[in-house]
Amino acid sequence: AQSVTQPDIHITVSEGASLELRCNYSYGATPYLFWYVQSPGQGLQLLLKYFSGDTLVQGIKGFEAEFKRSQSSFNLRKPSVHWSDAAEYFCAVGAQAGTALIFGKGTTLSVSS
Amino acid sequence: DTAVSQTPKYLVTQMGNDKSIKCEQNLGHDTMYWYKQDSKKFLKIMFSYNNKELIINETVPNRFSPKSPDKAHLNLHINSLELGDSAVYFCASSPRAQGTNEQYFGPGTRLTVT
Fold this sequence. Notes:
heterodimer; A: mainly beta; six-stranded mixed beta sheet; four-stranded antiparallel beta sheet; 0% helix; globular; B: mainly beta; seven-stranded mixed beta sheet; 55% strand
């Protein structure tokens, strides 16, 4: 079955500390992988995507993610977290264009001062 | 220069009513989607259209009916609203012709059924 697992429901990090959000997927075909961020009361904003090629991808707002096929993982990282990064983060997997994205249940990021 | 827009942003209505949510994208994309986000923030696909043709129709009550008058618009009509329909509904679009599947989301419509 196709699925996305985000093992951490809620993470709190100090401002300026590094961040890693975990994502594991189960998908039969070659996956397209995404990270989205949702600020309170807002829509989903695409942070970054992986289709093929270099397994380390850079996104907006200083985020990066690394695709590891052997571990079926696509973890999101940021070297130094800002208070404005507090939000809900969703990992998603999909196939070719036109198909639905399958989302994880999300990780809530809180940033402490 | 809004990319994907939805109206209304908030919708409060009573059980049994019929309501519609509208979605428009100005990105020139071919494919549009409706997702439902429940109270636990879980997102799940409901429908998708490509060039006005329905291509995904998940297990959704037939009280929900999508309509795509053209490839830039995808509306969602809901009949006989129930308490369980309360959720945030997101419209999204993707450029199918490019072969990738990055989807761009609207701001969402928070539906509350009382």
